[in-house]
């Protein structure tokens, strides 16, 4: 049987702390778990959907795709990639479409950021489900799917993936409590975190849990997405998983922003200047 060797490098200060706090008899187990975690993160791919036309953001998006709009000194998408790279997730699939050349030219293969980027492109918009379907051949294990126009603060992907695996879920959606859910619609969960229902956008100002635009998925999800058809992850795929009682919600309480309209963009830019986000 072929055996693959790998290694993990501990910075000197971390090794010194490890030696002081972990008994000698437990160091082997500790290091083994550290290697397993490192390999798990390296194997987990991030699929980022960033092919939309951003029509609600016009005229800003006439000549540039929405994920490339700058927040401070970096595009929205770079903030996202840097955040997850800092957590050890370095393998990325970008699903591109509208004005895709801007994204490809700026990020290339990702080497300048210390990450690996692959691209899939859609010739015609097929919804969020169709955009994800294009990445089917590039993922073969649990993966993260998010949108190129949402920003999180100190979100912990490892924690969410662990929650997802403990629930043995086919899909786990990150939920966020909004003061006004009229733009998003509401998500109902039970005491175990299982998603029970999605409700339409309320007519009046209502607070509640909403889909924050990040989810952990298993490759089996592609069975629910037909080829070459317009499919919505939110309205078609996720509602089907609710029926199968295999969709969960992870409630996140940190900073979150959906840059859907110019007012959102202006607000997030102000948050950057006031250092609410970095």
Description:
This protein is an alpha/beta fold. It has one domain (44-273): Spore Coat Polysaccharide Biosynthesis Protein SpsA, Chain A (Alpha-Beta Complex), CATH 3.90.550. The protein is built from 8 helices and 13 strands. It has helices at residues 12-21, 24-43, 76-85, 100-107, 127-133, 157-166, 233-243, 262-273; strands spanning 45-49, 70-71, 74-75, 91-96, 116-121, 143-147, 150-152, 171-178, 186-189, 195-199, 208-217, 247-252, 256-258. The strands form 4 sheets. A 7-stranded mixed β-sheet has the order 5-4-1-6-11-8-12, with helices on both faces. α5 crosses α7. It is globular. The model is unreliable at 32-41 (pLDDT under 50).
Shape verdict: globular
Question: What average pLDDT do the residues reach?
Answer: 87
The N- to C-terminal Cα distance equals: 47 Å
Q: What is the CATH topology assignment?
A: Spore Coat Polysaccharide Biosynthesis Protein SpsA, Chain A
CATH class value:
Alpha Beta
Return the CATH architecture.
Alpha-Beta Complex
In terms of DSSP E residues, the strand content is 15-25%
Name the CATH superfamily assignment. Answer: Spore Coat Polysaccharide Biosynthesis Protein SpsA, Chain A
**Helix and strand sequence:** HHEEEHEHEHEEHEEEEHEEH
Uncertain stretches of 5 or more adjacent residues: 32-41
Counting DSSP H or I runs of 4 or more residues, the number of helices is 8
Q: How many strands in all?
A: 13
Structurally, how many domains make up the residues? 1
Return Rg in Å.
20 Å
Largest sheet: 7 strands, mixed
Helix content class: 25-40%
Q: Within the largest sheet, what's the order of strands?
A: 5-4-1-6-11-8-12
